[in-house]
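If you are new to this repository, start here. Below is one unmodified record pulled from the training split, so you can see the exact layout before writing a loader.
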Amino acid sequence: MEEQNLKTIYFVRHSIRDTSMQEDAGASLTEEGLDLAEKLKIYFIGKDIKEIYTSPYLRTVQTITPAANLLSIIPVEDNQLREREIGAWIDNFSEYASKQWADFSYKLDNGESLEEVQNRMYEAFKGINSKSEGNYILSGHGTSLALLFNQLTNGEFGYDEWKEMQQPHVFKLVYNVGKDAVEFFESVEFQN
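And here is the target side for that same chain:
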């Protein structure tokens, strides 16, 4: 395995969302979430990050902005990295999520199934990965990232791992460009 064929991708799940805001795209981080995003930026020092891609949703942009500023990189917003469209506000989110993870085709009217989100995220990942010039950060959402991880790990990352995701959370993936394959994937601990 040659070193120049490897690329490291750091996936960042957004920090703590203000759940009092039901409008998904405009929901911001809480004060604690903003503080954690500030602390998160230190993790990326010395990681040779060349690019940052983010969902356009406010909370993902707010999460990655401190790191982007520190690294002097302007994040690229990509609508394909958005969170799953549910279709309507869900009061019992745990029950809804459980149904979706049990049946990847399940969805509400005007919503997306997990299968649709997984396909969208994988296409976005392939596109970003093919044009990126080196190590990069991809800032996104719990469900959409978990579905991408599910595909990249051949199902090893599933419902239980999704439930364990923190806000924020960093995952490190080493990708072999020559083999078009994942070499290494892990959850990363960072001090908050």
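Two things worth knowing about this chain: Strands lie at 6-13, 49-54, 76-77, 135-140, 169-176, 181-188. The domain at 3-188 is CATH 3.40.50.1240 (Rossmann fold).
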